[in-house]
Amino acid sequence: MSVIKRFDPELFNIIQREIQREISTLELIASENFASYAVLEAAGGVMTNKYAEGYPGKRYYGGCEHVDEAENLARVRLRKLFNAGYANVQPHSGSQANMAALMTFINIGDTVMGLDLAHGGHLTHGSPVNFSGQFYNFVSYHVAKSTGRVDFDEFHKLAVQHKPKLIICGGSAYPRFIEFEQFREIANKIGAFLMADIAHPSGLIAAGLHPSPIPFCDVITSTTHKTLRGPRGGIIMTSEDRENPWGKTAPKSGRVKMMSELIDSAVMPGMQGGPLMHIIAAKAVAFGEALKPEFKI
Ligand SMILES: *Cc1c(COP(=O)(O)O)cnc(C)c1O
């Protein structure tokens, strides 16, 4: 901070005012958190300098040996935290994690179901002002007035009627817990993929205080900056890696690709370029913190 003070007092003063605002007001915004100083240090560190398109061990740039270590550490910690078989830590945000997950599992124009934005869903769950509502045929399901939770009678009817290829469960304003198991039962009946967006409860899931989507969902996305208390960013996970159900093959060998390969390539080069290596380093710090017993307290 002292370096900014010396070289850019104008911005320094702006940051000082934000610090004052943060320490002198009560923050009740559910999607926000206060990252630790360790997370802030990693997010403000030298790894911002590094271009690293690709994945650890398979980069398009030289000099990636240390950012590879940071990304591997983030992936290993994240898998451990959620008991996941596969993890991608590159999405720049929760919305981009959702975009990459949708790009992996469905095609433009396909039918998808998501919770209505006004009922607690998210922009990326089919809002007409978002790419999701513009690229895909979204059918919204709703919460029941009496409970504030998903109206599973309506959801079941809509699912059978519209036969979506994929169902998104989870949202930005949803009470109690996400009913992964109930969604899975209905997804199984119509042969749909089930995607869980755990952006809000991810910290509670990591702490074991909210049911885990891992055994029930084909793909799981989250932000890292909400209850998980990490830097601003996104993640994608699956419970285990397996061969992709569409039989997509690798160009030269003809080998059937794994789901992990399809998700990785949907993120990069599918919808992002170079990863934010400083943020990935900060994600590794945050996942390390979340693995400690203090996090649950
Ligand atoms: C916050 C949120 C996102 C998107 O996160 P951004 O990082 O703001 O893009 C996605 N899904 C849900 C359910 C969210 O609450």
* Domain count: 1
Biggest beta sheet summary: 7 strands, mixed
Distance between the terminal alpha carbons, to the nearest Å? 31 Å
Radius of gyration: 20 Å
Task: Give the overall shape.
Answer: globular
CATH topology: Aspartate Aminotransferase, domain 2
Q: What is the typical, i.e. mean, pLDDT? A: 97
Total number of β-strand segments?
9
CATH homologous superfamily annotation: Type I PLP-dependent aspartate aminotransferase-like (Major domain)
Number of helices: 12
Written description of the protein model:
The structure is a single chain. With 297 residues, the protein is α/β, with parallel strands linked by helices. The chain has one domain (41-296): 3-Layer(aba) Sandwich (Aspartate Aminotransferase, domain 2), CATH 3.40.640.10. It has helices at residues 2-7, 9-24, 37-43, 65-82, 94-105, 131-135, 152-162, 180-190, 202-206, 259-271, 277-290, 293-296, and strands spanning 54-55, 58-59, 86-88, 111-115, 137-141, 166-169, 193-197, 219-223, 234-238. The strands form two sheets. The protein has a seven-stranded mixed sheet, sandwiched between helices. Strand 4 (111-115), helix 6 (131-135) and strand 5 (137-141) form a beta-alpha-beta unit. The two termini are 31 Å apart.
